[in-house]
Amino acid sequence: RKEVEQDPGPFNVPEGATVAFNCTYSNSASQSFFWYRQDCRKEPKLLMSVYSSGNEDGRFTAQLNRASQYISLLIRDSKLSDSATYLCAVSPTSGTYKYIFGTGTRLKVLA
Amino acid sequence: ETGVTQTPRHLVMGMTNKKSLKCEQHLGHNAMYWYKQSAKKPLELMFVYSLEERVENNSVPSRFSPECPNSSHLFLHLHTLQPEDSALYLCASSQELAGVLSADTQYFGPGTRLTVL
Q: In chain A, which residues have pLDDT < 70?
């Protein structure tokens, strides 16, 4: 089993739709979780950190499910500009600077 | 955004060449990282420097040689690379607190797209 797994997609959704993707992790001791957005041929940019209580930033909501060992990202009212690859990053307890990245989920928002 | 800059942005080199990638961060951070991103693969951590000391070498071949002369600059020296080394090389930085590298937010540079012929 991979340390961090994501469905590569692509998820093709119409504008205005709600879309959600998950990221599963294998290390139950993982402590820190992040969602990054990566546009084509660009660098990853932090979208949001994922806290135990979940967090929301505008149209984006991130949740952590420790029991099932996954994090989720929900995007409401999708915009064309949301089209990108969404990477999850998980940091284990030991050597906590070591992010383990997923391969990313590609989202295409269609007009 | 100019928080983390990388040069060159694109590099084509032969297998016998020697080249260097440069990264500079303007965020006042004290930890810097090199990642490799190949097509359809997750980001792979290569090296980590904290307070200018290398704290991680993730089984990277010796044809990649990092250098961190100060907390703002990071280099990746390349020599006798292989075609499979072609990838996007990303630099990142973060802030170490109280002597402990934590999973604080890492900020990435735009990357150098390397092609090895």
A: 93-97
